[in-house]
Write a structure and sequence with these properties.
This protein has 292 residues and is of the alpha/beta class. It has helices at residues 7-12, 21-26, 93-105, 124-135, 149-152, 159-168, 189-200, 219-231, 255-265; strands at 55-59, 62-66, 111-115, 142-146, 175-179, 204-210, 235-240, 276-280, 287-291.
């Protein structure tokens, strides 16, 4: 997987510390060349649940769209590392038309999830094309956008982007944004401003993250992150057990340690700040709650 680190993240890395958690998350390591037992190119079974290119229909009421495979910054623990950062141009206009038709033909789908890659790597105009097409499906009730750009490239959260999102958010047709802060060191002043722009515009922002060895497998770090998230009006959502993607075993934390961390959080934090600990099944059947 290619290397890309944004100027914003570079400013936050302590290069005097070889164990800096941000450096660990974005700098390639030799361990990526090795694969552990059970690791695979499709660790959550996306391919098994993909009726069309760029579309995953895993749950009856939700469909996930790979709007692009490009990211501003490539996380070394990415579970879609065999897709992200490669020379795939993403869905064409024809692909998009087929996806919209599929969703319209399956009225049980109530929620469309724009994912990737990172969908906010699209221009405002390109994003608006997707939002317009999706909002035209009468059976859709909401749109969710999964993005790490408020973390790695907060300058992307422009007034123009916020206006684009607001234009398609209507009464009883909300747009949710799920971002991905993994460590309190990632929350700088520019990130706080970006989140405030979204929340002040009525966009609900939630956070999902990944349990990573030597990054956030520590009660103190986890507590500090969750407190910062609720302070800036982000709702903690999920902490994921690391998926079994090839070459990321050096980030793996035992499941029992994750369960212990969640249990300990209940003694340190308000319940509104405590995420669910989740496991994505490799057979494509979806997420399972490990601890809450």
């Amino acid at each position: 997987m290619r290397l890309s680190i944004t100027p914003h993240t570079l400013k936050l890395i302590d290069f005097k510390n070889p164990h800096d958690p941000l450096l660990r998350m974005c700098l390639p390591q030799a361990q990526e060349l090795a694969s552990a037992a059970g690791e695979t190119h499709d660790p959550i079974g996306d391919d098994k649940k993909s009726p069309l290119p760029f579309l995953v229909h895993r749950y009856p009421d939700r469909a996930l769209i790979h709007a692009t495979y490009v990211c501003a910054q490539y996380c070394r623990f990415c579970f879609r590392r065999t897709k992200t950062g490669h020379a795939n141009p993403g869905p064409s206009a024809q692909d998009r038309a087929m996806i919209i038709k599929y969703i319209a033909d399956h009225p049980g789908i109530e929620e469309a999830i724009l994912s990737g890659g990172d969908p906010l790597m699209l221009t405002d105009q390109e994003l608006a094309v997707w939002l317009k097409a999706l909002s035209s499906v009468p059976t859709l009730q909401r749109i969710r956008i999964h993005t790490r750009l408020p973390v790695t490239l907060p300058s992307r959260v422009t007034p123009s982007l916020v206006r684009t999102l607001k234009r398609f958010q209507k009464t009883e047709f909300p747009i949710y944004l799920v971002t991905h802060f993994n460590h309190p060191q990632e929350i700088a002043a520019d990130n706080v401003k970006a989140i405030a722009r979204l929340v002040n515009a009525g966009i609900v922002v939630r956070n999902q993250s990944v349990l990573l060895k030597d990054v956030k497998d520590d009660l103190n770090v986890m507590t500090k992150l969750l407190k910062r998230l609720i302070a800036i009006r982000i709702v903690p959502y999920y902490v994921h057990q690391l998926d079994k993607a090839q070459g990321i075993n050096h980030f793996r934390v035992p499941i029992n340690h994750g369960k212990k961390l969640i249990a300990e959080l209940h003694g340190h934090l308000s319940s509104i700040a405590i995420p669910k600990f989740m496991l994505d099944s490799p057979d494509g059947s979806g997420k399972k709650v490990l601890a809450a």
